[in-house]
Protein: 3-methyl-2-oxobutanoate hydroxymethyltransferase
Amino acid sequence: MAAKRPLNVVKIRKMKQQKEPLTMITAYDYPSAKLAEEAGVDLILVGDSLGNVVLGYDSTIPVTLDDMVYHSRATARGAGNTFIVADMPFMTYHGSIDETLRGVRRLMQEGHAHAVKMEGGLEIAAAVKAIVQAGVPVLGHIGLTPQSVNTIGGYRVQGKDAEDAKRLMNEAKALEEAGAFAVVLELVAEETAAAISRELSIPTIGIGAGRECDGQVLVFHDVVKYASPYMEKRFVKTFADVGEQIRGGIADYVNEVKSRTFPAESHVFKADEGVSESLDSLYGGGRAAAESAQPDAASADHKKVGAQG
Structure:
């Protein structure tokens, strides 16, 4: 079978025209990326969600550009034949264009990403345009934007009323006009997401945005329930429960070591015949033999008293 070839932005747009759904999943390291590629996903997102699911933060805001470069590079090593998008982290694209492009350059040159993702709409359109003009594909992201969760009132569904739906439509159109090759719609009412998907010529990729998007994206750790404790989410379907298997496997390992049933005969390596006897003759059986040869204190005292009597 011919080796898988990574997508490009032309093929991604063509998939929308042909009504072929795009599949995207997050990955943050070599093994998860390799598994995702072997499973056949179209795109891998090195998301700043790694702050929550890998680094243990309570939001994506503490994630740094160094974090993103490190994890993008590891992911790229595991999925060399998959289109990889890396997140621009918090406050790395709201300053000067020069500063923004320096961050983009690091993700592309050091992180080996094929594209970058940016949260926001109208307020980042100029930055998106500059990045695209510099030759870097940009994936937009509107709706629930975790980096600005403190200003949008928490983790709530977007586009539920007419005014908010219109705002999201305008944001999506601004990103399309700026040159984004696709737009993520996160936690958006299904009707609003469907209208945006019909209106745009570029694909929409939904996460909690209903059934009418041109593709779907989920977090790796949600898909396989790799967390403890795991928090259920309405918009997520769990397709495997590796967390329970991992926990059980490690518990079995601990129990077998404690009971001395691991390692077993099948796990050990044998020396040549006579090696054990040779070592014993040279070193007298080691510390254990020396200690067993020493009388205990009570016995020594008894012998001392007897000798004096």
